[in-house]
Structure formats: structure tokens, C-alpha cells
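Why do we care about 3D structure at all? Because function follows from shape, and shape follows, mostly, from sequence. That is the central idea of this module. The next example makes it concrete: a single protein chain, its amino acid sequence, and then its structure expressed as C-alpha cells.
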Amino acid sequence: MKKLMLFCTMFIMLAGCGKEEEIPQILNVDLAVDPIQGEVKEPVKFRAKVTYGDEKVKDADDVSFEIWLANSEDHDKVAAKHKGNGIYEIEKTFDEEGTYYVYAHVTARDMHSMPKEEFVIGKPTPPEQNDGKKEMDEMNDEDMN
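And the structure:
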């Protein structure tokens, strides 16, 4: 009986040792705008490099770019295509000079990331002056719908 108990105890201990705990990774999105100072009617590339730990994410659930002119209520949201190696991108031209903003909305591995960049087309216009409260209110409104 003692041998059976010892065997069972060793089996349970060895079975528990074989399990490796998965370390949670972070969804990382590197957002790039090229050029950061563009011209009217010339293409601008928006690129999001998406990684999860060391893995290049090739199968994100959603990658889109939300672009708007500073202090404007009109936001344009464009879905991005995967170009390879975890890179998602779009190209867009602008008809109006000014200071612009872009959010990369990325959903992958049950996480969401929204890095933001400012860029200028032609001559800059006054940037948005808020403490982020308006943006947080808008995100909360979206979550409620």
C-alpha cells in the first residue's frame, strides 16, 4: 500500500512538473506615417507593425486606420491589408492642408490597441486642444453601443 501511495504521489508531482505556464504576451503596434510632413494630392502611407511577444501577427481580427483633420467631427476609417511579416498598411491622399491625426485600431489575440500619431499635410492648422477626455468619452460611447 505504501508503494502505491508513493507511486501516486510521484506521478502527480511529475505530471504537474511537465506543464509549462504560458507567460502572457503584450499586443504591440508600431504606427508609422510616411511622410510625417506631406503635401496635398501626394500619397501618404500608414503602416502598423503588429506583434504579439516575438510573433509577427499575420492574422489580426481587425486592423483599420481612423484619420481626421484636427478639430473636425468627420473621421474616415479605412480597413488595412496585411502586406506580410505583421505589417498592415494603407495609402491615402489628402485634398486639404492642415494638421491631421490617425489612430491605428488593431484587434488581435483578444486584445485591442489604439496608437495615435499626428501628421501635417501642407501648412499646419491649430492642433486639437483637449486633455484626452473627449476621446475617452467617444470610446466609452462606442463601447456602450
